[in-house]
Amino acid sequence: MLERIRGHVVVGADGSTGADRAIAWAAEQAAAEHRTLTVVHALDALVAATSLWSTAPSVEAARLGEVAARGGEEIVARAAEQAGHASPGVTVETLVRYGDSRVVLEEVARTAHLVVVGSRGRGPVASLLLGSTSASLAEQAACPVVVVRPQEGWRRGGGVVVGVDGRERSTRTLEFAYEQAALRRTSVTVVNCLWEAPVEGETPMDQRLDHRVLVAETMAGLGEKYPDVPAEVQIENGLADTVLWEHSRTADLVVVGRRKPGLIGSLVHSTLAASVVEHATCPVAVVPAEDGGAE
């Protein structure tokens, strides 16, 4: 299965409104990158059985699996049709797998180019499940993950916004942001946040200059590689998640990095990514420090 989707854009489908938004976004992304879009639906046996018993109690237990599988195929077929409407000409494949959605999507992320999910599912239980799926993927997936938010009050057009800490590990996150800006023919705003007080003998102006120098070092070479992407650096006061939430109201995409598990400070970065994913208005891309996915 993993080889089948190598280099694909993968989107999770469950028939919900949140998944529908993700499908439309993923279809446009796959078309822009000239990649195949694979629609994946995970059949959780317990959830499927509970849903069927509540809606069709007359269905015999022996037929539950058959009915659930047929329902899964209907979901991915509908999703493929939606993708075609959102981006005519995009190549779409479908995949239905038994298992927890988090496990299935984390598995396909090992060879996928990008995984896209919605932020909410269908009904109280499904909503919790899809919410936990997006959170789990954002923390664990080997490739970049885009979580498509409900977008209430979204005023798009502000380009790609990327949060960085000005260290070398931000390089891959920055490059991803530039790639997305180039695809969209828009700008990149590089945001670095100040939340600590200046050290003794240092003025706020000195502190801002130090941060600007660090960010410039991590951006080195990207201007030459992406000459058509306008870039702006903003050094802002405040907690990074709060600052990025504000930017998400008008950004086309917010990009944040995720450190490799086990590194000092990785918990802080995981918390930042989770916070931005949970509260942002626009779609959010979470980029792992080291990508196990296919190029």
UniProtKB/TrEMBL annotation:
Signal peptide: none
InterPro entries in the cross-refs: Rossmann-like_a/b/a_fold (IPR014729), Universal_stress_UspA (IPR006015), UspA (IPR006016)
Domain UspA: 8-149, 160-288
Coiled-coil zones: none
Pfam family for this entry, one: Usp
Family: Belongs to the universal stress protein A family.
Official protein name in the record: UspA domain-containing protein
Species, as recorded: Nocardioides marmotae
Taxonomic lineage of the native organism: Bacteria, Bacillati, Actinomycetota, Actinomycetes, Propionibacteriales
